Amino acid sequence: MATLGIILVVVGAALMVAEAHLPAMGVLGTGAAAALTAGVVRARTWEPEGEGVPLAEGSAVVVESIDGPTLTVRPAEEWEVR
Description:
The chain has one domain (2-46, 55-81). It is built from 3 helices and 2 strands, in the order H-H-E-E-H. The longest helix is centred in the N-terminal third of the chain and has 20 residues, at 2-21. By secondary structure, the protein is of the alpha+beta class. The chain is elongated. A two-stranded antiparallel ribbon has the order 1-2. The chain has helices at 2-21, 27-43, 78-81, and strands spanning 61-67, 70-75. Strand 1 (61-67) and strand 2 form a beta hairpin.
């Protein structure tokens, strides 16, 4: 997964350079932004701190913090779901 992310970052950078030198009316820049964003999201690796608990799909969670596009969550306790 990280390999695809790195490839997308490189493609995005190449499209930004091309946009700067070709009259593409912003089309290449839009593709570059999309490729860079997708590449950064895919290339980023995350390791749970301490005793990370894997969450099942559909589990209730509580957002502990927000750092850009990254949410830090923990399993919700029963009283928090009601």
